[in-house]
Amino acid sequence: MRKITAFAGLGLAAALVLTGCSAPADEPAEEPTAEMEMDEETAAVDTVNSDGAGLRATVQGLLYDHVYLAAAAIDQALADGGDLTTEDVQAAVATLDENSVEVAAAIGSVYPDAEQPFLDSWRSHIPFFVNYTVGKATGDQAAVDQAVSDLGGYAVSFGELINSVVPELPAEAVQGELEMHATSLLAAIDANIAGDPAYFGLLKEAASHMSMTALALSGGIAANAGIE
Question: What are the boundaries of each domain within the chain?
């Protein structure tokens, strides 16, 4: 059994650098005008820490985590020979489920009644990736085909669920985002099973797609709920 190094985490950091200009010393300072005061008021609007930006950042971070935590759980299952009952696999799956709860809570912070239906739906697609992995690793093509079909069906139903809550998000658009998520993560799983070093780059690519999904979800929610 090949040795697989599981992912321990991923950190992201960002910094904003603000620069300013001043008038030359030999020129008189410009008197404030009404237009300047209006510009200052406009500049004072905090778009970085706004509710809309916060929602997008939260959803994006959680969806990034989802990809890596799912990969870690699958990776551990492969390392344990496909035994899903080992302590390590169970711990990885539990951590992944905590992430699912957090994603649902982010949606529920805007739509409380939708939190549980979202969680139930989101949880349901994770076993399909497990089924695909087991089928691929054991050469069971029927199981692989069924898992791919199940993921396709889930993308449709998830799109319809989101559209029922957020009409601003077309079901087909949400479906497309989920299909991309599945396709990119399955490609990474294939590489992992084959022992292909491309696995790491493919996993990074799968995670990067989550920014588009987060933008679509948070943008539609913000528009529907009037969040700026």
Answer: 49-225
